[in-house]
Write a structure and sequence with these properties.
The complex is a heterodimer of chains A (about 325) and B (about 675). Chain A is of the alpha+beta class. Chain A has helices at about 10-25, 55-65, 80-100, 100-130, 170-190, 200-210, 255-265, 315-325, 330-335; strands at about 30-35, 40-45, 50-55, 155, 160-165, 240-245, 250, 270-280, 285-290, 295, 310, 325-330. Chain A has a five-stranded antiparallel sheet. In chain A, strands 7-6-8-9 form a four-stranded antiparallel sheet. A three-stranded antiparallel sheet of chain A has the order 11-10-12. Chain A is elongated, with a radius of gyration of 28 Å. The termini of chain B are far apart. Chain B is built from eight helices and 45 strands. With about 675 residues, chain B is mainly β. A ten-stranded mixed sheet of chain B has the order 6-7-8-9-17-18-13-12-11-10, with helices on one face. In chain B, strands 41-40-43-44-38-45 form a six-stranded mixed sheet, with no helix packed on it. The chains are: A alpha+beta (about 325), B mainly beta (about 675).
């Protein structure tokens, strides 16, 4: 089975995302509820992808006293663009599902999250302008007061309590983000056979993108698969690991496999952030390869013939080098 | 594995939702304290503690409620016609609504003032203002009827009115809309506001015994809008304080243009000085036209006279008369505390409440601590007059009343609440919500030297969901609060008639015992009275017919009238002969384009009718007066215009009486 093809479950989930995004087009994305003593019935501003709705006229009527601009759907370029952007993502989902390439899925997820972040920043900026850019001739001017609505959550503005929260569309959008993250994770796990176990999905979602400080993972012999040769890692004494700048972890039978992968250009040497190798003795903890003391000896008989053992300290190196008749080496030397 | 993940996802989502959900604060419950019902229940047969006189606003009437039960006791017609009572319809009451513009059937009654003696309510008279055709009315609290109305010349809008000095020396009115004075050429462009439009304050003297009103003098002021006012008392007796806005002197889009300046003014007027100027002949006599209408309880008739002269003092020219004190942002209320020392300004667009000290004002004037002049009137430096500011009390302060215990209560329109604060240390002590958007407050005696600190009533501008809905138009809401303790407690919520702008309350005892039960028939000096059935007659003079009629349980005398012709001017002068308590009679006749008469025992009222068709018109008593009320009716025969049917009338005879020759033509 080609590991870069998406599983049927993931494809179905991606199609589900497309459907949810289509729903987002016709339901409100966001809402701001306004609460004041003289408004027992409450006031609501609804933001659809294509327009403003709710008590827009009443809110405009009230806000003119404090000099806020009146809101009109036509004034917002976002309402012209959003439907197309959301439609684009729906189409993109369908495309990803049809083509089934994992790389497309990953791109989709990244672009989707970027879009989400950009949208929130745009929303915040609009709210800032709305609340600060006041008409100087307004009837009621409270010195030093600005009326920026909250981005999300509650804020008291004069006699109004403003409560900003996603509406159905917003939640669906978030759900799509979560489902796409789940898809990427599923694909990743399927490919790597890493047990997620009890790790909360949310934490993993966070760790999938932009995580800078990834700790090396303990290699599970008999379960983890060598990235280079696709064979189950069998010898705990030689296992090695490469971590990319993006935080992806690749497991290998031994250091020699990493070299082969680099040589074959299956992995971009410039993308590698850290390389770890198992301590040949002791508990076989992973050591950063540049801190490791390496020994080359044919007597080692490593799984893929690299025949290099790594030690966390020099004493162990000396002990084994006497025992096995080998030469000291280092990752630097091996990489040449 | 996947199921576990989905479970985790659901839990995580629910968790996130609940966090966000708990961010929204719960809206406060409109909780009423447990013993509220006891406090407001006035048992059948028992009386309320207070009479609450409430302005009707755009209804033009004055309503009377009992406090604490909030029972509506009466609606007194003042500036609007009331067909139920024949007010403005009967010949006797029509002159009450006469003005220099003719008969005006409606006006807008904003504020109420009870007459005072030595700074306390004396229960004699009640004054109300008309905003549209500027007038002040006096209501007699023995009969609860409008006794006198005086029109105000040189005035447009009469909002800052009526306000009374400590001993009812003067009832003072101020204009809301500045206009060119009556004797100037008023045909000027509106944009010449700054040059040509003036504000006017009217000082109406009130007779000590009878209460008769007379415009003692007017003061011509800059073209600001006068909003509210209070007389000084105690230490500040002899001074009057007016809140002014639109010092921008704008004439259009006031919403924006009159809200620009950071500070408007409170105008302090030394009226004792004005009296001196008047004595010294410094006033300018102006030729004007204004109506003065007075109702006489003996003749049961109103007479309207047009007066033609008023004396005006010019604030620009006369020194030491008026002073401006800066007050933040379009002040509305301007209220003087019971001691007369502290003057509280409420800037309706301000976020603080400034409190001025009278002693400081006097000192500032003596030391000439002025910040220039505005339209010729010195402006006192803000800090020199200021006692202190109440910081961040709420939004949109409008009006303040006092409880006599050193506390002030200010209504906040925008944040829909009442804020209690201590005058001495300017600290907010308590706040309660009102439902919704309170305008004015009323504490019995709240503007006197010794307020009664038991109750506070808030009159609100927005009702929405407080009561059962009645279509798009809802009555205004009011709430009653118990302020006898440290914290204010709402105890009752009730709808009001019209739109109350202000109210004043008076201890029931002051009025109860003096309330007239009936008019003595022997004192009736109405020109067309019939003091007994023997005096009833029908008299023709040309095409005018006067019917001298009486009503007593349960018949009209005469109840059969013939000889009326189409086009006659028929006057039914109906005297209620009863001398018993609560036996009014009504009167109506078919075909009269008029209202009914409602006549109290011993009273005479006249209904005018011009018959326009031939036939029989029934007439009857409209007020359920007796067991045989249904039988209290009669007929009028209307003959064609040139007919020779003679006048004849009677009750109880099958054949009508022959008229005596002298009474027919």
């Amino acid at each position: 089975m080609n590991a870069s093809r998406l599983s049927s479950l993931v494809r179905l989930l991606v199609i589900l995302c497309a459907i949810l995004l289509l729903i987002v087009l016709v339901v409100p994305l966001w809402r701001i509820d306004l609460d004041a003593p003289q408004y027992p019935e409450g006031l609501r501003l609804l933001i659809y992808p294509h327009k403003l709705a709710g008590n827009v006229d009443i809110i405009n009527g009230l806000n003119h006293y404090i000099g806020m601009k009146t809101l009109h759907s036509d004034d917002f370029i976002e309402f012209k663009l959003l439907p197309y952007i959301i439609g684009f993502f729906a189409a993109f989902c369908l495309l990803v599902s049809a083509i089934g390439k994992r790389i497309l899925l990953n791109i989709l997820l990244i672009v989707f999250f970027c879009f989400g972040v950009i949208s929130m920043i745009d929303f915040w900026k609009w709210e800032y302008d709305y609340g600060h850019n006041l008409n100087p001739e307004a009837a009621i001017i409270v010195p030093g007061m600005a009326y920026q609505p909250p981005l999300i959550g509650f804020k008291q503005l004069l006699n109004f309590g403003a409560y900003s929260i996603p509406d159905i569309g917003g939640w669906l959008f978030i759900a799509v983000g979560i489902i796409l993250s789940l898809c990427v994770f599923l694909e990743y796990r399927r490919h790597k056979k890493i047990k997620a176990g009890a790790i909360p999905l949310l934490l993993l979602t966070v760790s999938v993108f932009g995580s800078c400080n990834v700790e090396p993972e303990q290699i599970k012999v008999g379960k983890d698969v060598c990235q280079y040769c696709n064979m189950t890692i069998s010898d705990v004494r030689f296992g090695a690991e490469a971590i990319t700048k993006k935080g992806k972890i690749y497991m290998y039978d031994e250091l020699h496999c990493i070299l082969s992968d680099i040589h074959q250009k299956s992995i971009d040497v410039n993308e590698i952030k850290d390389i770890y190798v198992s301590d040949f003795c002791g508990k076989h903890d992973l050591i950063a390869v540049n801190n490791a003391f390496c020994l080359y000896s044919e007597a080692l008989k490593s799984p893929m013939g690299g025949n290099v053992a790594a030690f966390s300290n020099e004493d162990s190196l000396h002990a084994y080098s006497e025992l096995l008749d080998g030469n000291r080496t280092s990752w630097k030397e091996m990489s040449k | 594995m996947k199921i576990a993940q989905i479970k985790i996802l659901i839990i995580a989502t629910v968790f996130a939702w609940s966090i966000l959900g708990s961010c929204k604060p719960k809206s406060a419950d409109s909780a009423v304290s447990g013993d509220a019902a006891e406090k407001v229940y006035v048992a059948p047969g028992k009386y309320d503690e207070f009479y609450n006189f409430v302005s009707g606003g755009f209804s033009g009437q004055m309503s009377v409620y009992g406090i604490p039960s909030a029972r509506l006791l009466r609606v007194i017609p003042v500036f609007s016609v009331d067909p139920e009572k024949g007010y403005g319809y009967s010949e006797e009451t029509k002159p009450m609504l006469n003005t220099s513009h003719g008969f005006v059937p409606w006006d807008d009654l904003h504020h109420v003032q009870l007459s005072k003696t030595n700074g306390e309510v004396d229960g004699k008279w009640l004054f109300g203002n008309a905003n549209n055709t500027p007038r002040v009315a006096r209501i007699d609290l023995t009969t609860f009827r409008t006794k006198e109305i005086i029109e105000l010349p040189n005035s447009g809008g009469n909002h800052s009115s009526p306000f009374i000095t400590e001993n009812t020396e003067y009832v003072v009115a101020g204009t809301r809309f500045s206009i060119p004075p009556d004797d100037a050429d008023g045909d000027v462009p509106i944009s010449s506001y700054k040059q040509n439009f003036k504000g006017t304050l009217s000082f109406i003297s009130v007779g000590k015994e009878e209460g008769n009103m007379d415009i003692a003098f007017q003061i011509q002021c800059p073209g600001v809008n006068f909003d509210l006012s209070r007389a000084g008392k105690g230490v500040s007796h002899g001074w009057f304080f007016f809140s002014c806005y639109n010092t921008e002197l704008a004439n259009t889009l006031l919403e924006v243009n009159a809200s620009q300046r950071d500070k408007d003014f409170i105008m302090a007027i030394n009226w004792k000085k004005a009296e001196e100027y008047m004595k010294a002949g410094k006033g300018r006599k102006q030729s004007v036209k204004y109506a003065h209408n007075i109702y006489d309880d003996k003749t049961h008739s109103a007479t309207s006279t047009i007066r033609t002269e008023v004396t005006v003092l010019d604030s620009k020219v006369l020194k030491d008369l008026c002073y401006f004190i800066p007050c933040p942002k379009s002040p509305h209320g301007c209220d003087v505390d019971p001691s007369g020392q502290y003057i509280v300004g409420s800037g309706k667009l301000a976020a603080l409440i400034p409190v001025f000290s009278f002693d400081k004002i006097r000192k500032a004037i003596a030391n000439k601590a002025f910040d220039g002049e505005f339209e010729g009137i010195p402006v006192i430096k803000y800090e020199e007059a200021l006692f202190g500011e109440v910081k961040k009390p709420g939004l949109g302060p409008l009006h303040t009343e006092f409880d006599g215990k050193g506390n002030a209560y200010t209504s906040m329109f925008v944040s829909s609440e009442i804020v209690k604060w201590s005058i001495k240390d300017l600290k907010v002590l308590d706040r309660v919500p009102t439902y919704y958007s309170v305008g004015h407050l009323s504490i019995p005696g709240g503007d006197t030297k010794s307020p009664n600190s038991k109750y506070l009533i808030a009159y609100n501008k927005i009702t929405k969901d407080r009561y059962l809905p009645t279509g798009p138009e809802l009555s205004q809401s009011a709430q009653l609060y118990d302020i006898s303790g440290d914290k204010m407690k709402m105890i009752l919520d009730f709808p009001t008639i019209g739109e109350p702008h202000y109210a004043q309350a008076c201890a029931a005892d002051l009025i109860k015992s003096k309330s007239l039960k009936l008019f003595k028939i022997e004192e009736n000096m109405h020109p067309y009275v019939a003091k007994g059935e023997k005096e009833t007659k029908v008299v023709r003079k040309g095409n005018r017919v006067d019917v001298y009629m009486t009503e007593i349980r349960s018949h009209l005398t005469p109840d059969n009238i013939e000889g009326i012709k189409v086009g006659d001017e028929v006057y039914f002068h109906v005297t209620n002969l009863e001398q018993d308590w609560d036996v009014p009679h009504g009167f109506a006749v078919k075909g009269a384009s008029n209202a009914e008469l409602l006549i109290m025992p011993g009273e005479t009222q006249t209904l005018k009718w011009i018959p326009e068709r031939v036939g029989i018109s029934p007439m009857y008593c409209t007020d359920f007066c007796s067991a045989l009320h249904q039988e209290m009716s009669g007929y009028v025969r209307v003959s064609p215009a040139g007919s020779s049917v003679p006048i004849s009338f009677g009750t109880g005879k099958t054949n009508p009486e022959e008229p005596t020759p002298a009474t027919t033509k």
